[in-house]
Amino acid sequence: MSEMLLSFAQWIQLTDFFTYLRGSAYVYPVILSLHMVAIAFFGGMILMTDLRMLGWAMTGRPVSWVLDGLRIPKRYGFLLIATCGVLMAGCKAEEYYYNAFFRAKLALLVLVVVHAAIFRASVYNRAAEFDLAGQVPGRAKLAAALSLILWIGIACMGRGIGYIEPPFGIHAQLWPF
Amino acid sequence: MPIDNPINAFELAFPIVQCIHVAGFALSAGTVAIVDFRLLGLILPQRTPAQLLRETALWTLSGVILMIVTGLLLFSSDPDMYLLNFSFDLKMILLALAIAFNYTIHRRAVQSSPSPVTGKFVACASLALWISVLFGGIFIGFSPQVLGFKA
Question: Considering the entire predicted model, what is its pTM?
Fold first, then answer.
């Protein structure tokens, strides 16, 4: 399984497309910049949603209003972040295969899916009920706190990726620098 | 007598401060973007931009302070490199413009319930400024000074 992943990583980074991306002086940093812009804009929305559920921000507004109002834009944002992320990962797929931060980031992203599966029905689709009841239940606050931890963790793991030196020898034929 | 900068003394200090820097601009640019997207009519139609601005202003300010403090720490790791870095210099000018714009024209326009055209124009200008600041930050790392090219 892991050998299959590794040879897939080696194959994909040597496709013409990713070879071009990797060597380009401007396209790669532009993709990285778009990744950061989307993190700033849509990460900000995630922060505001979670902080609203915890009762720390936008407390004058109904929970359902913040949750439902930001749901769709957050999805577009995630699509943009993920697209840029896949493009960048493809450029250095083999190096990322060995990168502990990249692995941790993927693991946390899986946990995001688990988080959604656990809390979607009981929290995220029932925000209107919290407003009627006049308080946010502990379960929803737990969901918000876990979401904050997961997303901040994902951003930090992403930042860490660049700080691990690739194993000796895999890189020489790739970088023009 | 030289004093060790703690940012350079620990291997993990720089990336950790960078993470907080990212959180700072997610809060600041992120909350500004919420108001701007509302001005553009893209999100949260139930509330006016002015109401949204009121509710996010404190978080925007917190984010700005957080990113400036962490930014100064990052800068202190290698001031000469940053000052000679064209992307960094440009970023600082754009950042000053973005903050000035945000607390003058942007704020006044949002609070005075602008016409849709004015609102959209201000939102686009604001988004363009913050986006260019973020691009500036990334391009610092892709500059000749950092990559070790001879100019």
Answer: 0.85
